[in-house]
Fold this protein.
Amino acid sequence: MTAQTTRTGGRRQAGQARQARQETSGGRRAAGRGARWDAGVVAAAGVLFAVAAVVGHALNDDNRLHLHWPPLLAHYKLHFGPGSVAAPLVALLIVVHGPALAARLPWRRLLLAGWMSALAWTISLGLIDGWQRGITSRLAKRSEYLTEVDQVTGLGVFLSTFTDRILLDSENNWTIHVAGHPPGALLTFVGLDRIGLSGPTWAAWFVLLTGASLVPAVLVTLRALGGGRELWARRAAPFLVLAPAAVWLGVSADAYFAAAGAWALALLALAATGRVRAPWAAALGSGLLLGWLLYLSYGMVLLAVPAVAVLLLAGNRRPLPWTLAGVLTVTALFTAGGFWWFDGYFTLYERYYQGAASDRPYAYFLWANLAAQVPVLGLAGLVALRRAGAVALRERRSGWRAAWREPRGVLLSLVAAAVLAALIANLSAMSKAETERIWLPFTVWMLAAAALLPRRSVRWWLAAQAAVAITVDHLFYTGW
């Protein structure tokens, strides 16, 4: 009896050992296949960007594309500045210490650390161009908002006549960026001026501080929708901080738009999951922000896609009336003031095709816009999107409905919503070029997919992200 038991136990142990070896071998093969796919994605992205550059330069006779270095709005010029030292040092600190700190810091400290680290990274990249050219003068250019601040002498007159000054042939027409956005964008900088924070330096600090705050906003959203579990948010944190997108988040009003959108979704997630004392107040705050976003940029209407995703992931529609009330309140105020959103949008459409859009070929930018995202997302972002797609396909085959509200499913769903919103923008023909900054409200959510990257290689991927951003900022004057 004892001998038979011993033989049976031995056979069981041998079987378990064989199974373990097979699982290990299968895991190694799967990892090898994944690495090959990752390498393929990196190579394909490099080819896409190179082809877009070659074709773009070929098409750009007589500045047809209105770009100096297509597919990017940038000037090619190798240059150096104080950030040439500061950016690698900041990157090194985040690469070495970021993953460990993200894993163990108390939650609130992590949010603050993420915000401050993103701010340091963005400023260090801007300093590659120098303090004045890279930071303080970006919003003072003739095409920017600050040049029109003194034109706003009364709110009623400003709102009621805003649309009249959009077209190129209108009297005293607005500068490019003011005409290209609803009046809320200019009103933001007018408000700063009226409270004593006037001039390009204060405007730059406002954009830098708000833009960097999108990191904690994304983390709050992931945690809330993940049932309070923080694993995927913590894994995403270093990649959100050390994002190549910071090249364009630095002193670009689109960074402010992206952050406002991120906080609108964060408040909506907190309201829908009941993770605040007054969910109705969070929902109302989300609606007010979403409404304000409609008057910051016409393209922010597409933020409805991830907003709907948030409500579906939470499985709770109760915040919707409060959110809609917030949106309608902002809309009613602007309409009562004399600005009708649809009039502004369709007049802008006409203005858009009075200028560069009439020359820029839709067939080129339909795919070159995607190529422009290569330096924005970086190698880790592109590989992470590939892995997110692969995971989503596997989950769909095994029963997606059971997995989409799990923390990883939440991450995948938000990434998918952001990708969908960007693709709709691409098809709209209102995003011909400059998508490296225009799509920032969507690409920041795509970067969160980097949480899916293998833990053993996180530091290598972070280093790759830093290398992309530092290289781009040394080779190009991007304008933002």
User: Anything to note?
Assistant: The chain has 22 helices and two strands. Residues 2-59 form the longest helix (58 residues). The mean pLDDT is 92.
